[in-house]
Write a structure and sequence with these properties.
This protein has about 140 residues and is α+β, with helices and mostly antiparallel strands. It has helices spanning about 25-30, 40-55, 75-80, 120-130, 130-140, and strands spanning about 1-5, 15-20, 65, 70, 90-95, 100-110.
């Protein structure tokens, strides 16, 4: 696993992603390359939130919590209710500090429990498997 800074997003907050094994793309690049035609409003909210985080800091209020995992976007009740077929988009990430975020991968969440979802389970479980690494990085960063 190799960390890569996402320069185009990093302003007041440093955004990183990871490249797993000898894959050509990073996890965040895999996410960016996905198409979500039925979730355009959520995608817009997600990228706007990343921009806001980049300017104002990675405050916990910007992130959706799923157990030990963080995810984007955190959307309003009307957006949630308008989405009748699934539980919305998840971009899994790790908020290490107010100034350091690791963007991973995600997809459309189709079940309440992310471990049971055929589309996000692998991304959620990967984040959980790497949780000890994130915990150690948090200690080092403080």
């Amino acid at each position: 696993m190799a960390f890569k800074k996402v320069d185009e997003l990093s302003h007041n907050v440093d955004f990183y992603t990871v490249r797993l094994g000898n894959k050509e793309l990073t996890e965040f690049e895999f996410f960016v390359n996905k198409d979500f035609p039925d979730h355009e409003e959520e995608i817009e909210i997600l990228y706007n939130t990343i921009d806001i985080i980049g300017e104002r800091g990675a405050k916990i209020r910007y992130f959706k919590s799923e157990g030990p995992a963080n995810a984007l976007p955190k959307v309003s009740k009307p957006v949630i209710l308008s989405n009748e077929q699934d539980f919305g988009i998840r971009l899994y990430c790790v908020r290490l500090t107010d100034y350091l975020v690791v963007l991973l991968n995600g997809d459309i969440k189709t079940t309440l429990n992310p471990k049971d979802c055929p589309r996000v389970a692998k991304h959620f479980v990967m984040l959980l498997l790497l949780h000890p690494l994130w915990t150690n990085l948090e200690v080092i960063m403080k």
